[in-house]
Amino acid sequence: MDEPGLQTHAGPTRPSPVSSRVLLVYSNRARILEPPPPIGLSYVATATRAAGHDVRFVDLMVSRDPHGDLRRALGEFKPDVVGISVRNIDNVVAQRPERHLDELGAVLATVRAHTDARIVLGGPATSILGPVALERLDADFAIVGEGEVAFPELLSALASGGDLRGISGLCYRDGERIATNPPVRQETFSSSFMGDWVDWRAYERGGGTFAIHTKRGCPLQCVFCNYPVMEGHALRQRSAGDVVDEIERVQATVGPRTFEFTDSTFNVPESHARGICEEVIRRKLRVKLSAVGINPLTVSEDLFGLMKRAGFISLVISPDSANDAMLLNLRKGFTADQVRNTARWARASGIRCTWFFLLGGPGETNATAEETVSFIEENLNWKRFLTVMMTGLRIFPGTELARHAVASGYISADRDLCDSIFYLSKELDEAWLLGRIDRAIGRCPTIVHGAEQNGSTAERWCNQALHRLGVAPPYYRFLPMVLRLPALGAWRSRHANVGLTAREHRGEEP
User: Fold this and answer.
1) Measured by CB atoms within 10 angstroms of the end CB, which terminus of the chain is less buried, N or C?
2) Quick check: 268 and 219 in contact, CB under 8 A?
């Protein structure tokens, strides 16, 4: 069923009667564990090309001279419209905050300095911010939601002087106000054809995996999550045959070492994930697979075995807590026993797994946090498990957490959530928690905290070495082996002090 106030679109984009020169820019330069490829912008580029426009793609993620490459593309191509995909608002780390919108400002300044083309913002961060994106950034339009339909429609309207009010998800200036049209949710979608737009070898050298979407939308109710804000709650699933057709085609034409399913939850529903695994097995494909969203709600021992047979070498599992009260507060929909079963089945499968936990949500106390940290020490201290812990939940616009924060007086109703604002339960002693995590790292070296920086020179060298050896990414799956080295453990015991990191960034004395 469609969501209230949303339009749906099932058909292909029709060719535009007027062709425009369109420069699409993937502005993201931030990597967390691996360089994320521009799958969303690739969908938009493919649809824009299908609509009859001349499309040029600039990927700043893998550029060694981002502003130089952007200036050259603007000068040589002379676009009529520049579309900029904005992936991140910030790094979502309370103890080491980094604002990515500031970097975007420099990209927009370069564009404005070298062209009079119309600028259109899109991407996940734009969908989260909505009309605020136009208020804060120097752009002409913003598109909220899926852009494959809306962006070609906007190009047609700009060329013909058409009405902007019918373009789904468009934010635009209407006199003194910013108008916002309801976003589009496409009923069907297929391949991104990302291989047509990116230099894949540059991603693979950095430990990247080829992204595949098998579905859109998320029916779950996690209080902090912005996926429903971006994609809606209604699930729109591709058939297993269509997904595996894409894998086969990309394997033959691009040849990535690993494919990664980047759905918010790959195994919701479990039957869909099972169907994809069974289709890969039926076709006897020799591929390596990964998934960034395994949810304890709908997972089983049998599914882990099936994923192993299909070729999965890496999984990301996000329970966020191992305490029943907090799982209820976060609206996760599963219990601590289900988290414990997931850990047992994952270990039995032998698949390398990265676990994510978020501490500090509504109702978190020292006791509930202790239960989660103790669970990690007792159940996840294994050479094939990496555990990432975050303290403080980023408050995103449109989420239940944002509404709770306002209703409880944690933040004011007019607080600008473009800023890096985090929720940390007032019943929780942050200093105690960060110290407890430091002690857990000493006991279980495969734990890392989000405040521990990645992207170091040593990490890049390691990735390059693994690439030259022919190892399949993601390379962060080998971090547990590295973190268990005694020399690194001794170094972390001296330098990886999360509490100290937090105080340094606040300008406090150690």
Assistant:
1) N
2) yes
